[in-house]
Amino acid sequence: MATTEQSPTGSSTGPESGPAPGARRTADRPLLTSRLTGFGTTIFAEMSALAAETGAINLGQGFPDTDGPESVREAAVRAIRDGRGNQYPPGPGVPELRTAIAGHQLSRYGLHHDPDTDVLVTAGATEAIAAALLALVEPGDEVIALEPYYDSYAACIALAGGRRVPVTLRPHDGAYHLDLDELRDAITDRTRLILLNTPHNPTGTVLGRGELAAIAELAVEHDLLVVTDEVYEHLVFEGEHHPIAGFPGMRERTVTIGSAGKTYSLTGWKVGWITASAPLVTAVRTVKQFLTYVSAGPFQYAVAEALQLPETYYEELRASLRARRDLLADGLTAAGFTVYRPAGTYFITTDIRPLGASDGIAFCRELPHRCGVVAVPNAVFYDDAEQGAPFIRFAFCKSPALLEEAAARLRRL
After folding, report:
1. What is the 3-state secondary structure (H, E, C) of 204-260?
2. Vertex 189: Cα angle to 184 and 190 (nearest 5)
3. Residue 10 has pLDDT above 70, yes or no
């Protein structure tokens, strides 16, 4: 293969390799694309590093401290031993998993999906979000996102060249609520897509049937697409999860995102998926094939088995997490925080102002040194950091013993 002499920056130095007329030279421009200006290391990496450095209990990053069901883990081992998935799996995902995902949507929600055309397996929900936004958003399109939002939403909208329009969930009466009038007012003739998340991270809000029906009506009225992140669908403690794809007029305009990580406590496997109409899946798959192409081959077979676990598994999971939620919520209340007890997910948002503080970022950076516990500041999930400044998030997907120890440490505050 022919070679070209390279400069230290990686650009060619031959006589015909100069920059195009008007182009800025590498030395004159930042290395990171301007679309991600302002995006640095994620807050989860920073707080987890701080937990490791100080030996603090990490209630910041949302991963369980115990592995998922043994039968599912053994299914992955069996797949590896049997040579299933050790080489490239099919681009859309292994047929067994796509069939199981379609069966899950049908049996639980009455949503019919052809596993061959309406299901796409992804490298976790994060890739599903990225692929969907990169596929569906043109530069200049407006994307409405519920604020506070998972940090990858903002980055993926920016990578697509879209403009993020936040609609803020606001706390009152012990929970966070969506203002439907504010959502309606946010829609313009440039709005392309509404990015939903229910159950909602970090607030724990579960959108009710009435709220989702109103959002669906707005989407139909304004001919908008909806991308909905439903990875916490099985972690609902009060109320009920309703996929917006099941509402009138939404089947052909909704991309629904699911994941095995949260439901089966196997976050490291990174197995996610989308379900949607065939044209939407085709659009998202066109992008996804150039991101990871495929991933997690043997784990896909195991997740196919996980999706067929009996209902008792989900009942026990919810009961266990509800008890842990209440344990930590009571401990945080005793420590002096104002606590917003979540209806879903495995995160609790708290207000630090009763403790005489108002800067959540500074508070979280000091907390490991003060009492040996790590949390995450909600300000990083807002466009206007002041909106989220006094709020911080704790994860309760940990063992009861660890949560009790964390609660005891927090009482030192």
Report:
1. CCCCCHHHHHHHHHHHHHCCCEEEEECCCCCCECCCCCCCHHHCCCCCCCEEEEEEC
2. 105
3. no
Using only C-alpha atoms, the chain has a radius of gyration, in whole angstroms, of 22
Torsion of CA 18, 24, 25, 26, to 10 degrees: -130
- Across the chain, mean pLDDT equals 93
What is the spatial distance between Cα 158 and Cα 289, in angstroms, rounded to a whole number? 20
d(CA 207, CA 199): 7
Helices 297-306 and 70-81: crossing angle in degrees, nearest 10, is 140
Q: At what angle do helices 400-410 and 311-335 cross, to 10 degrees?
A: 10
pLDDT at residue number 20:
57
For 277, left (φ over 0), alpha (ψ -120 to 50), or beta? beta
Residue type, 60: G
Say if strands 272-275 and 254-259 run parallel, antiparallel, or are unpaired. antiparallel
Q: Helix, strand, or coil here: 94?
A: coil
Q: Choose among 157, 231, 168: nearest CA to 191.
A: 157
**Residue 76 identity (one-letter amino acid):** A
Tokens in use for 170?
């606001």
Alpha helices in 87-206 (DSSP H): 95-109, 124-136, 151-159, 180-186
pTM for the predicted model, two decimal places: 0.92
